[in-house]
Design brief:
Elements: E1 7-10, H1 20-35, E2 39-42, H2 56-67, H3 90-102, E3 106-109, H4 113-125, H5 149-157, E4 163-166, E5 173-178, E6 182-187, E7 195-197, H6 205-215, E8 220-224, H7 231-240, E9 249-253, E10 256-257, H8 267-273, E11 282-283, E12 290-291, H9 301-309, H10 324-330, E13 341-342, H11 345-358, H12 361-374, H13 381-391, H14 400-409, H15 417-423, H16 428-441, H17 447-460, H18 465-477, H19 485-492, H20 494-507
Parallel strand pairs: 1-2, 8-9, 10-13
Antiparallel strand pairs: 3-4, 4-7, 5-6, 11-12
Helix pairs in contact: 1-10, 9-11, 12-13, 15-18, 16-20, 17-19, 18-20
Length: 510
């Protein structure tokens, strides 16, 4: 069926923090919708109340807001197809479950967990590689297909707990036409009769997402590849509910893999490698454990999204830095790869570095001034802007600016021993004392004039240029790092510079 309008949804479960794989799913849905002038919906799939985690729903919404992924319809935004929280739609699903039962496409199952485990053990002992509840095994279990009508009514009237299972065909190839993976065939004998309604009166994901996608007129289901094996059951649900001609198109994305490329990226990988796997910091409400987030780690939201877009998708060109509008224009499902996408923490930093370099000095200096204020340093905004322009090319994050420039605001408390050993020779104290005299007498104190004066002195006295300048830098900075030495001297001011040189003369001993 050709839908009148592209409508896609991101449908996370509030069972914990949102993994970056989930953010990527939201991003790909969002880009696809905007590319085709469609709608992007956020639907909270909270039918599994046993796994519900307080604060997770709010975390999901805050994460998408920080990323700049704008929601057209959702819990907060509303819309004509609400509610967009599944727990508020639970009365809706039961009627479809009963419709499937009445049509012979679903059935009541009363098996206890112990009976199910015993069934699996029997199959395992018999050498069967397929230990699922399906056409072969259901005939030996306690369900409305094996019970008499009287036995069934007795159990229902007595309020015995049951689930409702989808009745799969005995011998059928179910064809899935996937926009990323191509055509895939599943034989019904290798699938299980999935539970579509639980004993707690709530639907499972399988029924609820199909019903909601149909009623919300979803045109494309773009989700992770972990759902591929469940999709045949979803295809059957569309058929059995009479919606086959209105079934959305499916597109399953590859997994985000560990940096090693082996296995799905997990929180443990982030903890081990020292990088976040969640968009925002998350505090576990039970253990109080805090997991780092990209926002708190200093990533720019645009850089974060640009990085995510390239995990499994590429534009077919050498361009790597995209604005949101450029991503929307370039995005297409046929450029999504079929194999897993390896996560590279260094590449993530590279993206943030590119975005930070593109920021103007005024914006960066305002952000850096805030860091200085928190440290109790009252710096001249004009000077801060000058400092930022000198050091920003070495920064990956705004927080790096302090480590790259602390010597502008604080005199060295110690000196790099390696530089002392290599550069601080016996004549250096007397040479630096002469430089103090010259700089003190320099009236037109600029970086250019100071540099010219010092270098002329070194050349005229046939001194080692590298040795003297590195010793002078050591006196001012405490190490061999930093931008132009004479820019540093000018920005900290003559009085402070001379004081630091004298302190180094008095302090440094070989």
């Amino acid at each position: 069926m050709a839908f009148e309008k592209v409508r896609v949804r991101f449908a996370p479960s509030p069972t914990g923090p949102l993994h970056i794989g989930g953010v990527r799913t939201a991003l790909f849905n969002y880009l696809f919708a905007k590319k085709h002038n469609g709608d992007f919906l956020l639907r909270i799939e909270d039918t599994d109340q046993t796994r519900y985690v307080p604060g997770a729903e709010e975390y999901i919404m805050e994460s998408l807001e920080w990323c700049g992924i704008k929601i057209d319809e959702g819990v907060q935004q509303g819309g004509e197809y609400g509610s967009y929280r599944q727990s508020e739609r639970k009365d809706l699903y039961k009627q479809y479950a009963e419709q499937l039962i009445n049509a012979g496409h679903a059935y009541y199952a009363f098996d206890t967990p112990e009976q199910l485990e015993a069934m699996r053990e029997r199959l395992k002992e018999s050498g069967s590689s397929n230990q699922q509840y399906n056409a072969e095994t259901r005939i030996d279990m306690i369900n409305s297909l094996t019970l008499s009508e009287d036995e069934l009514n007795e159990k229902l009237n007595a309020g015995e707990p049951y689930v409702i299972r989808l009745k799969l065909p005995n011998d059928e190839n179910i064809i899935l036409k996937d926009m990323v993976l191509g055509e895939i065939s599943f034989h019904s004998s290798q699938l299980d009769d999935k539970i579509i309604f639980k004993s707690d009166g709530m639907p499972t994901y399988h029924l609820a997402n199909v019903v909601d996608d149909h009623l919300m007129k979803i045109s494309h289901v773009i989700r992770g590849s972990e759902w591929v094996n469940s999709t045949p059951s979803h295809v059957l649900l569309y058929r059995y509910l009479g919606w086959e001609d209105e079934m959305p198109q499916f597109a399953h994305m590859p997994l985000i893999l560990k940096p090693s490329g082996k296995g799905k990226l997990s929180k443990r990988d982030g903890d081990k490698g020292g990088f976040p796997v969640f968009p925002l910091e998350w505090k576990n409400p039970e253990t109080q454990e805090i997991s780092s987030g990209y926002r708190e780690s200093g990533y720019q939201p645009d850089a974060f999204l640009n990085m995510l877009a390239f995990l499994g998708w590429n534009p077919g060109t050498t361009q790597e830095i995209f604005s949101e509008d450029e991503l929307i224009e370039a995005f297409s499902l046929d450029r999504i790869g079929k194999s897993g996408a390896r996560f590279d923490p260094d590449k993530a930093k590279w993206y943030n570095h590119q975005y930070l370099q593109a920021m103007d000095d005024e914006t960066l200096s305002i952000a850096f001034k805030s860091i200085l204020d928190d440290k109790g340093i009252n710096a001249d905004p004009v000077v801060v802007k000058e400092i930022v322009s000198l050091i920003k090319e070495r920064a990956d994050f705004i927080s790096d600016l302090w480590d790259l420039s602390n010597y502008f605001f604080e005199a060295p408390s110690e000196y790099d021993a390696k530089v002392i050993k290599k550069r601080w020779k016996e004549n250096i104290p007397s040479v630096l004392a002469e430089i103090i005299k010259m700089l003190k007498e320099l009236e037109d104190f600029t970086s250019e004039k100071a540099e010219e004066l010092v270098k002329n002195y070194i050349q005229e006295n046939e001194l080692n240029m590298g040795q003297v300048l590195n010793s002078l830098r050591l006196s001012i900075v405490g190490s061999a790092k930093g931008p132009s030495l004479f820019d540093i001297i000018f920005l900290i001011g003559k009085e402070e510079a001379l004081k630091r040189i004298q302190t180094a003369i008095d302090t440094i001993k070989r």
